[in-house]
Amino acid sequence: MWRVRPDGGRPEGRGCAHLGGSAPVAVPERPPGCARCAARGRTWLHLRTCLTCGHVGCCDSSAGAHATAHYEETGHPVACSAEPGEVWAWCYADEVYLEPAPGVGPEPAPGGGNEAR
Q: How many CB atoms lie within 10 A of CB 102?
């Protein structure tokens, strides 16, 4: 379903030990938001969805960085962007971007969605 996105800064390549893990959860088209931020009256910049359990958290550019906090608390390694038009995922454990494997789902937009976490 996912593959490691080629990285020009790492021409030797990097792998992801989590690509063959459990089947990813269904990602809602428009997640409701970051519940932790909402509970504190905060806003977020971008949302990430955990592909292990479906938790939605805010990105590292948001004040809470709740997607990363979720990884640190649970060990769930892969989260995908929940932003409209962005088709990528990030493996926190292996520190690599992931993209849909050829022929699976929509192709990523050229040059889009480059924010890690």
A: 7
